[in-house]
C-alpha cells in the first residue's frame, strides 16, 4: 500500500491519465484502443446531449472522404549558399530611431505638461539607436536632407550580435 502511494506521487498527471485510460481499455476488452464501438459511442454522446439513446444507437461513424490533390511539386531547390530573399523583399517593416529612454513612476508621468523636461539615459551627442520592428540593428546620427531629418548609420550591429540580443 505504501508503494502505491509512492508510485502515485512519482507519476506525472499525464502518466496517471494514461494508466487510467489503459485500465479502462483492458476492462472493456479493447487492449489496443481500436475496437468497433461506434454504437456505444453514439449512445453515450446522445445521452450526454440529452437525446434519446435508442434513436442514435444506429448512427455510424465514418471517415470523411479526402480529396486527392495529385502530385505536389517539390520545393524549389536552391543552388549555392545564397538564401532565397525574393520571398520576403516586399514585406514592409517599421524603422524607428530612439534618442533615449527612462523609467518614471506613473505619479510623475501624470504631472507632465507642456514645457516639462524628461531626463533620458543617453548623453548629448551620443549615437541614436536604429530599430527595425523594435529590434536594434544599428547606431547613427541625425542629419538634415532636403529640409527633412535623416539618419546616417555609424555602426551596424552584426547578425550574430542581433541574435544574441533577441535571446536575452
From TrEMBL:
<feature type="compositionally biased region" description="Basic and acidic residues">
    <location>
        <begin position="1"/>
        <end position="19"/>
    </location>
</feature>
<keyword id="KW-1003">Cell membrane</keyword>
<keyword id="KW-0283">Flagellar rotation</keyword>
<dbReference type="InterPro" id="IPR001543">
    <property type="entry name" value="FliN-like_C"/>
</dbReference>
<dbReference type="GO" id="GO:0005886">
    <property type="term" value="C:plasma membrane"/>
</dbReference>
<comment type="similarity">
    <text>Belongs to the FliN/MopA/SpaO family.</text>
</comment>
<dbReference type="InterPro" id="IPR036429">
    <property type="entry name" value="SpoA-like_sf"/>
</dbReference>
<dbReference type="Pfam" id="PF01052">
    <property type="entry name" value="FliMN_C"/>
</dbReference>
<dbReference type="GO" id="GO:0003774">
    <property type="term" value="F:cytoskeletal motor activity"/>
</dbReference>
<keyword id="KW-0975">Bacterial flagellum</keyword>
<keyword id="KW-0282">Flagellum</keyword>
<dbReference type="GO" id="GO:0071973">
    <property type="term" value="P:bacterial-type flagellum-dependent cell motility"/>
</dbReference>
<comment type="function">
    <text>FliN is one of three proteins (FliG, FliN, FliM) that form the rotor-mounted switch complex (C ring), located at the base of the basal body. This complex interacts with the CheY and CheZ chemotaxis proteins, in addition to contacting components of the motor that determine the direction of flagellar rotation.</text>
</comment>
<dbReference type="GO" id="GO:0006935">
    <property type="term" value="P:chemotaxis"/>
</dbReference>
<keyword id="KW-0969">Cilium</keyword>
<feature type="domain" description="Flagellar motor switch protein FliN-like C-terminal">
    <location>
        <begin position="88"/>
        <end position="157"/>
    </location>
</feature>
<keyword id="KW-0472">Membrane</keyword>
<keyword id="KW-0966">Cell projection</keyword>
<keyword id="KW-0145">Chemotaxis</keyword>
<protein>
    <recommendedName>
        <fullName>Flagellar motor switch protein FliN</fullName>
    </recommendedName>
</protein>
<dbReference type="InterPro" id="IPR012826">
    <property type="entry name" value="FliN"/>
</dbReference>
<dbReference type="InterPro" id="IPR001172">
    <property type="entry name" value="FliN_T3SS_HrcQb"/>
</dbReference>
<dbReference type="InterPro" id="IPR051469">
    <property type="entry name" value="FliN/MopA/SpaO"/>
</dbReference>
<dbReference type="GO" id="GO:0009425">
    <property type="term" value="C:bacterial-type flagellum basal body"/>
</dbReference>
<feature type="compositionally biased region" description="Basic and acidic residues">
    <location>
        <begin position="28"/>
        <end position="40"/>
    </location>
</feature>
<feature type="region of interest" description="Disordered">
    <location>
        <begin position="1"/>
        <end position="82"/>
    </location>
</feature>
Amino acid at each position: 500500500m505504501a508503494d502505491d502511494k509512492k508510485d502515485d506521487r512519482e507519476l506525472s498527471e499525464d502518466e496517471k491519465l494514461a494508466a487510467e485510460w489503459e485500465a479502462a481499455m483492458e476492462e472493456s476488452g479493447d487492449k489496443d484502443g481500436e475496437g468497433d464501438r461506434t454504437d456505444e459511442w453514439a449512445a453515450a454522446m446522445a445521452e450526454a446531449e440529452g437525446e434519446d439513446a435508442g434513436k442514435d444507437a444506429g448512427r455510424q461513424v465514418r471517415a470523411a472522404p479526402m480529396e486527392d490533390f495529385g502530385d505536389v511539386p517539390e520545393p524549389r531547390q536552391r543552388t549555392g549558399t545564397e538564401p532565397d530573399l525574393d520571398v520576403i523583399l516586399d514585406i514592409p517593416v517599421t524603422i524607428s530611431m530612439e534618442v533615449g529612454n527612462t523609467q518614471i513612476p506613473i505619479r510623475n508621468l501624470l504631472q507632465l505638461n507642456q514645457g516639462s523636461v524628461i531626463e533620458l539615459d543617453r548623453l548629448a551627442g551620443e549615437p541614436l539607436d536604429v530599430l527595425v520592428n523594435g529590434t536594434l540593428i544599428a547606431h547613427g546620427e541625425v542629419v538634415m536632407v532636403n529640409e527633412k531629418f535623416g539618419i546616417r548609420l555609424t555602426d551596424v550591429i552584426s547578425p550574430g550580435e542581433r541574435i544574441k540580443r533577441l535571446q536575452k
